[in-house]
Amino acid sequence: MGACVSTSSRSTCSSSRSNGDAVPPPCLGIGFCGQKKTKRTFSDHIAALQHLPSIPNRIFTNGKSRTSCIFTQQGRKGINQDAMIVWEDFMSEDMTFCGVFDGHGPHGHLVARKVRDALPIKLLSFLHSNQSKQNGSGQTCFKGNSKKSDVLDSEKDGPTEDKLNSAWREAFLKSYKAMDKELRSHPNLDCFCSGSTAVTIVKQGSNLFMGYIGDSRAIMGSKDNNDSMVAIQLTVDLKPDLPREAERIKRCKGRVFALQDEPEVPRVWLPFDDAPGLAMARAFGDFCLKEYGVISIPEFSHRLLTEKDQFIVLASDGVWDVLSNEEVVEIVSSAPTRSSAARILVDSAAREWKLKYPTSKMDDCAVVCLFLDGKMDSESDYEEQCFSSATLQSNHSGNAIESDDGQKSEPCLQRNFTVRSSEENDNYGKLGAEVDGTGETVTGEDQSWSGLEGVTRVNSLVQLPRFSEERPNP
């Protein structure tokens, strides 16, 4: 029956160039703006990125940077399938890229790590492509170190602001599409029934650009008029029961329903079989469902930061399943040191898992805390946060020697997939974020697949490996 799933139709990455609504070359401060005297070319820059672990100001394991701290902890379902990254000085001195990626399926940990490493480079490449097209256009620049006043002045120029958003939107859409295309054609990584979510942000001065798929979430801690901390949800958990998502999936002959003993978890199913049961509407990979409504087209949004905005938290659903937005903001804002905030948040989530789901296997948790004022604790907190070599090794399951091809890491079939909480569903409709791509049913580049994650049972989707085994050869 697995042969009924067609994988022959593959979406190709659009080769079209920018439509002109792009940021001119000097705007992002990459350092290669087409000038004849530029010593370092873009190809040189990309070549240098092949040695990602040695790139300065890029962290992807438990620790801290100048403006952020990150922490991940393995759950009780096998290898840690979460990945995270903070990349400061991403394209200029005042630009930071952050991302959290939650893998699922037999090879989900490899998919998440591959996306973590490759997606930022693709975003960088498409932004440079937009810049190159606008080289010499003489249009107004948005420099990487733009101040708030610069942004406010630019707002007066509506068309210019529209072009800024258009350039970033196009870069996010193209990079996500190219990422999924690469996963589909990867020679050593089977993404047929494996995938990953992605929540990514770029902070450039007072501008915040966001692209995301799946159910990992970003929120912001900000102060209200009474100087009290409040939580602002920045992204929408793209689950199958959201009206627009469900409509698209059903239009593509996919089915959306929850199991009788798991009524709070809507899932995506094949039209002819009760599999695989994906608990999200968009994801990278998961090509067994790509023709049935699951897509990888990201939601995109832009926000102007103010002085009241204090920090941003990105986290996988292992955190949001047990903690509310308000609780997360309270935990981070009350942490004794900023560099310990991510660890304390994960520890709090672990305690809540034991209290709320005592018979369930705790999910993996990954957290990125980005402090918007650019300040961190002056002291070194590795010993204070118990970041011992043993902790790093147990939490990352060999992240330091990760391989995109999976040669050093065997798939973990005992992974149970994400337990969903119904309490959050009431909040999704309030956000009203628009689905980019007008909900088209184009074979989206990304699919995130989540098998049954029974609270007390083992993974019941024993037929899933057959999809991979019976996958037609290209």
Question: Can you describe what's shown?
Answer:
This protein is of the alpha+beta class and 474 residues long. It has a domain at 56-132 and 162-236 and 300-369: 4-Layer Sandwich (Phosphatase 2c, domain 1). It has helices at 42-48, 108-133, 148-155, 158-185, 243-251, 317-320, 325-333, 341-356, 389-396, 425-431, 464-469, and strands spanning 58-59, 63-64, 68-73, 82-88, 95-104, 195-196, 198-204, 207-213, 217-223, 229-233, 255-257, 267-269, 276-278, 284-285, 299-304, 309-315, 365-371. Mean pLDDT is 74; it is low at 1-41, 138-156 and 379-474.
Short description:
With 474 residues, the protein is α+β, with helices and mostly antiparallel strands. It has helices at residues 42-48, 108-133, 148-155, 158-185, 243-251, 317-320, 325-333, 341-356, 389-396, 425-431, 464-469, and strands at residues 58-59, 63-64, 68-73, 82-88, 95-104, 195-196, 198-204, 207-213, 217-223, 229-233, 255-257, 267-269, 276-278, 284-285, 299-304, 309-315, 365-371. It has eleven helices and 17 strands.
